Amino acid sequence: MKLTVELAGNLRIVELARTQQGFACSIDGAPVAADIVQINRYVYSILIAGRCFEARVEPEAGDLRIFAAGREYSAAVRDPREWRRKRGGGVESSGRQQVLAPMPGKVVRIVAKAGQAIEAGQGVVVVEAMKMQNEVRAPGSGRIERILVGEGQSVNAGEVLALIM
């Protein structure tokens, strides 16, 4: 996952990739030796250069508030996989829209049907990845034009699952 993160007015490109050991991380193209473990929905345990700390990350008005090492930070995250849509922030999309797979996995359920009216944030498809089911939601209101996948089908990250008009 490639993110553009604005932290205290500075823009940074952060790349995170899952590995067998956890996550691989780079900031502005430079590899960073970090071990990141998600403790619960908003809390992460992070080990960087032998220093361990806990970070609490909370959504706030479409952005993030981060508490780490006794300090508070505000961050705006721009994610090609539509971070804001998944977290409920940001402005609703309009016009023809694509519902994209957020990660590689297997389609376990089709929630919406072609021709159905749908609201922003309403579930369209459920994708299972790493034994967890993730409901992929509509980025905006409209009508389901076409569902492009079937139950049991494997999908790649960024693959178009459905079209909304």
List descriptors.
165 residues; mainly beta; Glycoprotein, Type 4 Pilin; OB fold (Dihydrolipoamide Acetyltransferase, E2P); 9-stranded antiparallel sheet; 4-stranded antiparallel sheet; 17 strands; 59% strand
Provide a descriptive summary of the structure in words.
This protein has 165 residues and is mainly β. The protein has two domains: 2-78, Glycoprotein, Type 4 Pilin (2-Layer Sandwich), CATH 3.30.700.30; 92-164, OB fold (Dihydrolipoamide Acetyltransferase, E2P) (Beta Barrel), CATH 2.40.50. The protein has one helix and 17 strands. It has one helix at 83-87; strands spanning 2-7, 10-19, 22-27, 30-32, 34-38, 43-48, 51-60, 63-68, 71-78, 97-100, 105-110, 117-118, 123-129, 132-137, 142-147, 154-155, 160-164. A nine-stranded antiparallel β-sheet has the order 4-3-2-1-9-8-7-6-5. Strands 10-17-15-12 form a four-stranded antiparallel β-sheet, with no helix packed on it. The protein has a four-stranded antiparallel β-sheet with strand order 14-13-11-16, with no helix packed on it. The longest helix has 5 residues, at 83-87. The protein starts with a strand and ends with a strand.
